[in-house]
Amino acid sequence: MAGNSNTPNYFNEMFSGDGVRPPYRGLESWSNDMPLELRSLKQSEAEALFRRIGITFAVYGEGGDPDRLIPFDMFPRVFSGEEWRKLDRGVKQRARALNAFLCDVYNRGEIVRAGKIPGHLVYSNEAYERAVAGFRPPGNVYSHIVGIDLVRTGPDEFFVLEDNCRTPSGVSYMLENREIMMRMFPQLFRENRIAPVENYPRLLRRTLGSVAPLKCEDEPRVVILTPGHYNSAYYEHSFLADMMGVELVEAADLFVEGDFVWMRTTEGPRRVDVIYRRIDDAFLDPLCFRPDSMLGIPGLMNVYRSGGVTIASAPGAGVADDKAIYTFVPEMIRFYLGEEPILNNVPTWQCAREDDCGYVLANLKDLVVKEVHGSGGYGMLVGPCSTKEQIAAFADKIRENPGNYIAQPTLALSTCPTFTKEGIAPRHVDLRPYCLVGDGMIELVPGGLTRVALTEGSLVVNSSQGGGVKDTWVMAE
Amino acid sequence: MLSRTASNLFWIGRYMERGETGARLLAVGARNAMIPNIGGGYRNEWESVLAAGGHAEAFSEKYGEPRQRNIESFLFFDQDNPSSVASCIEQARENGRIVRTALTGQVWDALNSGFQEMKGLRRTERSRLSISDLIDWTTRQCALVRGAIDDTQLRNDGYDFVHLGYALERADSTARLLDVKYYVLLPQVDFVGSGYDNYQWSTILRAMSAHRAFHWAYGGDITPAKIADFLILNRKSPRSLITSAEDVMFHLDRLARGYGRTTEAQARIRSVVGELAEARIDDIFDEGLHEFLSRMIGEVRVLATLIHEIYLSGEAR
Amino acid sequence: MRLRVDHESTYRFDPPMRGVVQSLRLTPTLCENQQVADWAISVEGATMGAGFRDGAGDWIETAMLLGPVDTVTIRVEGEIETFDRGGILKGNREKIPPEAYLRPTRVTKPDRALRELAETAVEGIDPAAILDRAHALSHAVEQAIAYTPGQTAESTSAAEALALGKGVCQDHAHALIAAALCVGIPARYVTGYLFSTEEDGAQEASHAWAELAIPILGWVGFDPSNGTCPDERYIRLGSGGDATEAAPIRGIANGAGEENLDVKVVVKESQSQHQQ
Fold first, then answer.
1. What is the number of other CB atoms lying within 10 angstroms of the CB of residue C266?
2. Mean pLDDT of all residues in A27-34
3. How far apart are CA A181 and CA A179, in angstroms?
4. Looking at the domain A347-409, which fold is it?
5. How far apart are CA C196 and CA B275, in angstroms?
6. How many degrees, rounded to 5, is the angle at CA A276 between CA A272 and CA A281?
7. For chain A, what are the domain ranges?
8. Cβ–Cβ of C47/A287 closer than 8 Å?
9. What whole-number distance in Å separates Cα of residue A248 and Cα of residue A256?
10. Can you tell me the ipTM of this complex?
C-alpha cells in the first residue's frame, strides 16, 4: 500500500524503522482491510455527523461558505504511553514557566532585572498591559489554558513551534473527533486501550472554579464570554459551555454594579465569578482599553482589579506567547523552575537583529519566515516550497520592516498515514495539547488536536490554509 | 436563564408561527385568485392578503402593481421582507443557532434542515415550484419543529418562552386574518347565500386549516357568526383567540410559579381571557368586529412589551 | 500651600440613557508632593464600588447609575496641603517600570515634524544628560504650540496640534510625550488641578501636564503650558499614556441620547488655619 512508502527525509510515525511502530500496530489491519467503499461510506458518514452537530469553521477574509467544515481525516494519530509521558512533563513545565513569567513581569520583573530578557521586549510589547501591572490574580495564574504547538521530527525529537497563552482554540475538535471516531469505529476502541479525553470540560470547569475570587463564597459561577454568533469559533464556545454546564454570554449580557459583575437573567441579576473570555483584550472594557469599542463590559477591569471577578486568561497574558518572547522560554524555565527544558525550542532568528536579518535574507530558500504578531499561517513564507519570485518579494517585505519578522529552519515535520484520494499516504502533522492551569492544579488530558496538511508535501497545517484534523490517541499503559 | 437565551427561544416560536401564517396567507390569495371577480366593489384579493401581513406599502415600493408571481416571491422568498416565509425560517434557525445548547438535537435538526432545504428551494428554478408545494412544504416544516419541541424539549422555563412566542404570534395572526376579512363576515343581506360569499368564508377556514374542524364543531351552513365564534371564542379551535390567550396565560403562570414571582403580564392576560370566556359573538358584533379585533391586536402588543420588560430585556431586577 | 478644590461635572443626556458607568480617577496621588486633609467624591444616585489602586499608584473607583439617567453630577470637594519638590514626583508607589511608557498611543504617535522638533531640541546636548534634554524638549513644545483655547478638540493628536501651532494643556502634554518618545525618554500624561491667580493670567483650574522618566530622579513633571515644572500650585490626580487613559472621569452611557457636559472647577487658597 501507498502508506508504506517512506519519504526518506521525514519521520513517518507509523512506518519509520523496521515494520510498524508499536503504537500504530492496532491500526495496521484495520486500515489495510478497509475496503474502499466502506471508507468513502464512513467518510461521508463522518461529514454528515459534523454537519449535523453544526461544527463549522469560517475562514477569515476568504468569504465563501460560512458553514464550511474542517476536513476530518479518519486515520488516527497515535502516541505510546511512554512518548506521552515526556510530552506531558514538557508541556506542564512550559505552562508553569509561562505563568511564572507573567506573574513576574506584572509585578517585580526579576527576570528583566537579572538581565535574562531585555526589558524593552517585555514592557514595550504590544501585548503588555499596564492596566494589569501590580495585580496578582487568584493562584497567581494568568494563563489558565495554555495551548502548546508541537511538531515532531524524529522518534524522540519534539519541538515547540509556539505557545498560546490567550485563548487557544480548537479543543472542541479534540473532543468531537474522538466522539465521532468512537461512534464510527467502536471495535477499534474495544481492541485498543486508548486513554479517554472526555473529562476535559469537567477539568476546565474545575480549573476555572479554582481561581474564583476570594470574595466568592458560594459555588463559583463560571461563564464563557463569546464575541457572538457571527464569530468563526462560535460553535466551539457554545459546545464548551454546553459540556461544562455553564452559561454562554455575550458582553451585553453582563454589567457592572458595585463591586461585582452581574449577568442579566429572566429572574433578575445573577453574580458572575469567573469569566472565561474568548474575546481579545481590546474588547473587554471600553473604560480601560479601546474607548471606541462599543463591545465589552464597561467597568469590568475595575471589578477585576478590585478582586470581584476573575478573567481567564488575564488581560495582558499575550505578552508571554509573543514570538519575540518565545526565544526566551527555555531561559524562563531555568530561571523560575531551576529545571532544564524538556521540550526544545526551534532555533529562531530575529530579523530585528542585524546579524540575524542578514543571515535570514541570505538563506530564505531554506527558512520559514513568520510575522511576529501574525497567526493562522497568514503572511508567512515557507522557503523550500516557494518560487524565486515569491522569495524575492518576501525579502523586500523583510527589508522594509525587519522587526516584524522572525525566521526558523524548515523543520522536517513528521508524517502520519492519511486517507487520500490516491489511497493511504503520509501527510505532515503537528499537535496542540491543551494544558489547564488552576490554583494549585495543573492538568493535561492525554490527547490534543492533531492538524494535518492534506496537500501532498505541504508543511502548512493551518485549517485556514486547507489543513485538516485527526483524532489523537494516547495508548493507555 | 439568561435573558438573551429566553429572548431567542421566544423568537423561535414567533418566527415559526409567523412563517406558517405567511404560507396560509399565500394559500388564501392563491385560492381566491382562482374564482372570477364578480364582486365588483371588492378589492383585489391579493391586496387584502398583503394588508393582512401589514406589508402593502413595502410591496408596492418594491414591485408596484400587485401581480400574483411577484406577490408569491414577496411573501415566500423575499429576504427584504422580514415576514416572508424564508426570512422567518432563516431567522428562527439563527435564533436557534445562538441558543443551540438550549435546544435538543431533534429541535435543532428540524430547524436546521428546514433552513438547508430552503436554501435548496431558493436555488430551484421558480417555474418548477408550484405554490401549493411551497405551502405544503412550509406547514410540514413548521409542524416538524413544533412537534420536536413538544416531544423532546425539557419542560423548563425555556419551554415556556418558546410557547409564549408561538401563542402570542398565533393570537396576533388570527386577529389580523379576521380583521382583514371582517367585512366578509358582516351579516350583510346582499351577499348572504351568494356563491362568492360562501367561497370567501370557507377560504378563511381553509387558511386556518380549520375547514373540517369547523364542520365537526358546528355542522350545517357556514354563517359569519359561526366562523367568528369558531375563530374567536371556541376553545376547541386550535387557532382561536381564546385558545391562544389561554395558552399565553398557562405559560405565564408556569413561569411565575417557577420563579416565585407574580407579574403584571399575568394580570393583563387574565383580564383578556376573562373577557373572551364571557363574551358572546353578538356582543362582539355589537361592539363592531373591526373595533374588537383592533383592541385584541393591541392587547397582544401590550403583552409582548410586558414580557420583554419582565423577562427578555434583562433590565428587570 | 493649602488648597481648596471644588469640582463639579454635570453630564446631561437627552433623551435619557438606559444606564451609565463611570471610572473615576479623582483622588489625589499618595505622594510626598501633596497631603490630603479632606477629600470627598460624590455621585448622586450612583452605586459606588470596585475601588482599587492601579499599577501607577492611582486610586480608581467605579460609579454606576441605572436608567433612565438624564443627569449625572460628580462632585469633588477637598482640601489638600501641597509642597514644592522641584517637579519631581516623590514617594508614589508604582509597580510599572518606566520602560512600559515607551509605546505611543494614537494621539502621541510622532510624525516627521514632531521627530524633527525633538531632534532639533536635543541637538548638542549630551545624550546622558537626560534631564537637560527633557527641559529642552518641554521648552521646544512650549515655543511650537501657542496656548490658544478653542482651536483643538479632545481627539486632536500631538501631530495635528503641532501642525496647527495652537492648543491647550492637553495638546502640550501630548506633544511633549511624543517628542520624548522620539528620543527614547519614557513619558506619560498627568491630570490634576492648578491654582492660579490673576497675575499668573487666570488659567483653567483643571489641568494636565506630562511626566518624563529621568534616571535616578524618577518621574519628573513638565508643564509646557506654563513653562515650568509642577510646584506647590499643582495637585496631582493620576496618569496614563494619553489624555483618554489618564482621564479623571471616563464613562460610557448606554443609549442614544445626546451628551452635554458642564464643568465647574474652583481651586483657591484655603482660608482655614492649618496647625503646624
1. 12
2. 90
3. 6
4. Dna Ligase; domain 1 (3.30.1490)
5. 74
6. 110
7. 2-344+411-474, 347-409
8. no
9. 17
10. 0.94
More confident residue, C205 or A201: A201
Alpha-carbon gap, residue A101 to A317, rounded angstroms: 10
What's the confidence (pLDDT) of residue B192?
Answer: 44
How many CB pairs lie under 8 A apart between chains A and C? Answer: 102
Nearest-10 Cα torsion for A398, A401, A407, A413: -80
Set of cell numbers at residue B28? 388564501
- As a whole number, mean pLDDT of residues B89-118 equals 92
Domain residue spans in chain B? 1-153, 154-317
In residues, how long is chain C?
276
Determine, for residues B97 and A241 on separate chains, whether the beta-carbon distance falls below 8 Å. no
HEC profile of chain C:
CEEEEEEEEEEEEEEEEEEEEEEECCCCCCECCEEEEEEEEEECCCEEEEEEECCCCCEEEEEEEEEEEEEEEEEEEEEEEECCCCCECCCCCCCCCHHHHCCCCHHHCCCHHHHHHHHHHHCCCCCCCHHHHHHHHHHHHHHHCEECCCCCCCCCCHHHHHHHCEECHHHHHHHHHHHHHHCCCCEEEEEEEECCCCCCCCCCCEEEEEEEEECCCEEEEEECCCCECCCCCEEEEEEECCHHHHCCEEEEEECCCEEEEEEEEEEEECCCCCCC
Q: H or E stretch including A123?
A: helix A119-123
Q: What is the mean pLDDT of chain B?
A: 86
Examine residue B209 and say whether the peptide bond preceding it is cis (omega within 30 degrees of 0). Answer: no
Q: What is the pLDDT of residues A431-469, one digit of tens each?
A: 999 999 999 999 999 999 999 999 888 888 877 677 899
Q: Does A171 touch chain B (CB under 8 A)?
A: no
Amino acid identity of C10? T
Residue A163: band (very low, low, confident or very high) from pLDDT cuts 50, 70, 90:
very high
C-alpha cell recorded at residue B8: 431567542
Rounded CA-CA distance B249/B268 in Å is 9
The C residues from 34 to 93 touching A (CB cutoff 8 Å) are: 47-56, 60-62, 64, 66
In A33-167, which ranges are E strands? 72-79, 145-154, 157-164
Virtual CA dihedral for B128, B132, B134, B135, nearest 10 degrees?
180
Q: Which domains does chain C show, CATH number per domain?
A: 2-82+248-269 (2.60.40.2250), 98-245 (3.10.620.30)
How far apart are alpha carbons C139 and C141 in whole angstroms? 5
A308 touches chain C (CB under 8 A): yes
| pLDDT-based confidence at residue A8 (cuts at 50, 70, 90) | low
Q: Is B250 helix (H, G, I), strand (E, B) or coil?
A: helix
Handedness of CA A312, C105, A113, C89 (dihedral sign): negative
Buried b (16+ CB within 10 A) or exposed e, A309-322: bbbbbbbbbbbbbb
Instruction: Give the three cell numbers for residue B148.
Output: 420536536
pLDDT of A223 strictly over 70: yes
Chain A positions touching C53 (Cβ under 8 A) are 134
Between residues C111 and B72, the one the model is more confident about: C111
Q: Is B312 on the interface with A (CB under 8 A)?
A: yes
Residue B42: predicted pLDDT? 41
Return all residues near A239 (Cβ < 8 A) that are at least 6 apart. A55, A172, A175, A176, B101
Tens of pLDDT along A281-298?
999 999 998 777 677 999
Phi, psi (5° rounding) for residue B269?
Answer: -70, -30
Q: How far apart are CA A320 and CA A327, in angstroms?
A: 11
DSSP for residue B101: G
Listed residue (A433, A408, A442, A436) closest to A326, CA to CA: A408
Classify A7 as helix, strand or coil.
Answer: coil
Interface contacts A/B by beta carbons within 8 Å: 53
Q: Cell numbers 514557566 label which residue?
A: A97
Task: Take residue A148 and report the three cell numbers written for it.
Answer: 502548546
Cβ-based neighbours of C137, under 8 Å, separated by 6 or more: C118, C121, C122, C176, C179, C180, C183, C185, C212, C222
